[in-house]
Amino acid sequence: MGIRSFAADLLPSALLQTARERPAAAIARAEANDFAALTEKLGYLSKAELKQVREAYKFADEAHLGQFRASGQAYITHPIAVAGLVADWKLDVQAVMAALMHDAMEDCGVTKPELIQRFGAPTAELVDGLTKLDKLHFSTREESQAESFRKMLLAMARDVRVILIKLADRLHNMRTLSAVAADKRGRIARETLDIYAPIAHRLGLNQIYRELQELSFAQVYPWRHSALAKALTRARGTRRDIVERVQKDVEKAFGAAKLRAQVFGREKTVYSIFRKMRDKHQPFASVNDLFGFRIVVPQISDCYVALGVLHQLFKPMPGRFKDYIAIPKANGYQSLHTTLVSPLGTAVEFQIRTEPMHAVAEAGIAAHWMYKAKGSNGHGADAQRLGATVLKSLIDIQDDTRDAAEFLEHVKIDLYPEAVYVFTPKSQILSLPRGATPVDFAYAIHSDVGDHCVAASVNGEAVALRTELKSGDVVAITTAPGARPNPAWLNFVRTGRARAKIRHHLKTMEHEESRALGERLLAQSLRSEGLLMPSSDPNDEAAAPIWQHLTRWSGNRNRGELMVDIGVGRKIASIVAKRLAHLIAERGGGDKPDAVTLSMRHFGTDAEAVPHQGHVVIDGSEAASIQLAACCHPIPGDEIVGYLGRGEGLTVHSAECSVAKRLFERDSERWLPVEWAEQPVRAFDAEVNVLVQNGKGVLARVATAVSATETDITHIDMGTERASETTELKLTLAVRDRQHLADALRTLRRAPAVLRVARVKG
Ligand code: MN
Questions:
Q1: Dihedral angle computed from the Cα positions of residues 325, 326, 330 and 336, in that order, rounded to the nearest 10 degrees
Q2: What is the mean pLDDT of the chain?
Q3: Range of 728's domain?
């Protein structure tokens, strides 16, 4: 982002040397003068500190040797000028040194360890921070993008001094922009207007804010700028009398009230007039508060006295009084504002403030250092309080900061502690809450990306999906078409959006599964009636009316909803099947109309009994809609029964389970026959209690015994009575079936220190 001539890079080094040597004396003299001017501003530093600054200067001068600005000046003149601005704010020695070396790392191959060794870690950190900011490139076309960048810039520069030096850098580049090629000027000015000026504003550096705006505005809209500037000069001429008369009247009134007050005339900048015209759709003639006054008084109480005097002198405009002393602006700004109607009918705005408030109004956060430097002459406590006030409004600091070192610590924390700013591979910026993960990132891009995300990389390296993202990370997401959200993601996602999308997807999945289960259950019930499921095709002339009748009877909006109801147990499949059989018999239709008679015989003869429905087959691939009961943990080989809870889907219990037996007594019609598939697709959890003799390594011995049977332990619970002779371990084992479990238990029983082994059966 720096502006410089690259001509030096194109020249062979021998030529470069001669080019530099010829006017060397003159250049060296000019630079020495520049540096001398800088040291004059550094009177607030100690002798030792000045020596450090000189070291930094020498280092930077050597590093930039042979580089030139677009203006033809030696490159080092730029860092010296930036350091000068930093010195105007009375920033500390580290900041001045960093300003001198701010372009050295990027341009001259100077490394950070080298800087740490020569100038200490704090200064090296500042230079490093500035170099990192310099590497960011952005299209500022979109307003939202510019806002993100502003935030990111503030967040990435953990030390506010980095931002201040960066602003000084930009200000000097803007002041010298005319030397830069015309095609680059527009882009740089845009960027300044979109990004740097608002940052200055946010930090309360109003003087810089205004200057950056004026300089950029003149570049971006040269014609409008010159037209407005001319109009402003004309207006100034015609209104000079009013301004002078108002000033005299005001000073006289303050004198009569025995109020010590300084009165300054104040003018709007060209850019602020332009903005007002544009935003409020006003012509130049009706922008009426071109002029104003700033009143600076000794005490806060004097502000209100001055206000009273002014309101007695001229008529205030209703609705224009604002008390920013009682309620400061977000950037720390404090003043009383009021607009009065002057004797000639012109509106004139007055800003009333104390001197410290004035410093904050002009220099914002930088006022802290200015006052700290002054502090050696006695204004210390006030300055600290003021600096703290400014900062307090910028970042949320709970305690008052009195000590300078402590203050700096606070300044060093993130200005946006709650957010991280990350990039897509195409350099789009996303803002996420701190702690956000690649999954949050994926959902922030698009819910499809989130739903199908399987892997992520950060800055080119593969990372776990639960990795915490940091500001500046470039994040890439890998998706797969068949992938689905994992419920475990809910444990680490930070954004509400990701959470909602994952939940929604899981719900839909459950819904689909319930529906599929409903279809299965109804088909089985129908089969036991000797019928096949009528076609679900809405265009099937025979089947469609049957479904219509059936859903009207069941009170469902459509066939799908009825299936879900059956799947989750809100409707009983056998009852629906009977009704369906009845409808088929009445109207004819279904896939196998000949079966109607068979079905009717079945239905007619044994209406009261629990009908045969066929079996639901469990193979382990079922998810949300079919659950294996946690009380008895049935595994293949166990005799099992299925309980269709109301709205809960099907729960499979072991036939011996006492919970199941109790449920059966209550509502027997909700029981379905279920059976294991021949080849279940996964292992099943079984719970086992193991009583062991306490002793060293007993757990390891148990674990070894279990793994010898190729069984995984998915969970271990240990008894808490450590003092006793024995401990009961509760193991959850993943087994294929009863046989596998029996093998594991046998091996366990033979293991040393194991006293008793028993499966838990609900
Ligand atoms: Mn620079």
A1: -30
A2: 78
A3: 684-760
